[in-house]
Write a structure and sequence with these properties.
alpha/beta, Glucose Oxidase, domain 1, 2 domains, 11-stranded mixed beta sheet, 7-stranded mixed β-barrel, 21% helix, binds glutamine
Amino acid sequence: MTAPAPTTTTRPRAARRERVPAVLVLEDGRTFRGQAYGAVGETFGEAVFNTGMTGYQETLTDPSYHRQVVVMTSPHIGNTGVNDDDPESARIWVAGYVVRDPARVPSNWRSVRSLDEELTAQGIVGISGIDTRALTRHLRERGAMRVGIFSGEALADEAALLARVQQAPEMTGADLSSEVATTAAYVVPAVGTKRFTVAALDLGIKAMTPQRMAERGIEVHVLPATATLDDVYAVNPDGVFLSNGPGDPATADLTVVRGVLERKTPLFGICFGNQLLGRAVGFGTYKLKYGHRGINQPVQDRATGKVEVTAHNHGFAVDAPLDRVSDTPYGRVEVSHVCLNDDVVEGLNLLDTPAFSVQYHPEAAAGPHDAAYLFDRFVKLMEGQRA
Ligand SMILES: NC(=O)CC[C@H](N)C(=O)O
């Protein structure tokens, strides 16, 4: 993994509970004044909101949030402190954190420190005490946009701060997977008897994903984002997995995905992986106005008609027709899942090639477990291929 994003700089904080003024400046000029939460300093990123009432540790450590400043719509965050079991990666990836009313005293049997301490220790600049409902409504109406959080001194000149926010990098066109992915391959062993080998491309993978596969007898070889088709086939895989990850899917190289489809090796993708599969077969991707981030998003499986409540974190989506099966260079492709809030494509199924993907998070970290069957579907696809 690489060093923290260069878009953040921090200063030491004198006393832990000292009230340090902070200001959040959106790129369209709207500002919110509050207090520093976590590290004191300044940070820039894309302002997005997450509606989960629980699972803040999983959110903070999800590499897909790299370069994003996350606004929590739930007003009380930090109540259960921080433990060493729930992180989805080795560090916090959000570029900044926005909370209405953080817990002053955490209480949970697993808690080893407070969230404020953890954010400070990891150099994550945050702000608290602002009207997160007004901020969320603003983002919902105007769309996700660049933002800066500044704390400490020299906050009076808002015009100067705004100019700096407007110079920060945009999310559209950002190629970020290699900034968060492992640089060395590693293996997550199967739990119990090993049944399959999977090559998983780490584009920003969450720890729970290989775990969910390992629980099903899969030995997972996690490979760097830069892995070639030869690297993938060097592990002699029964299946290939494309992970979640940060950034704009339009920047990704599709050579490996297309090579796997051509060889008809079973393929499963999650989130960024869904977007790559979509682009590999010829669909476009586009930026959503404000994205889906939370753990209670209703998705319909169009094959069964069943509705699942699911975990989401995506700002881009695949542009594929809902009303018909598409003919592509890899055969017929259908939209398998759709979000019931806004009809956004939430899954793809290839009818002539053993490949499928979903835009949401069946690993459910954090989140409801309704979509766990998708890992079983991947196992079935690999079983079918052997038969
Ligand atoms: N969690 C993910 O994989 C996110 C994918 C992509 N970066 C998006 O925002 O849509």
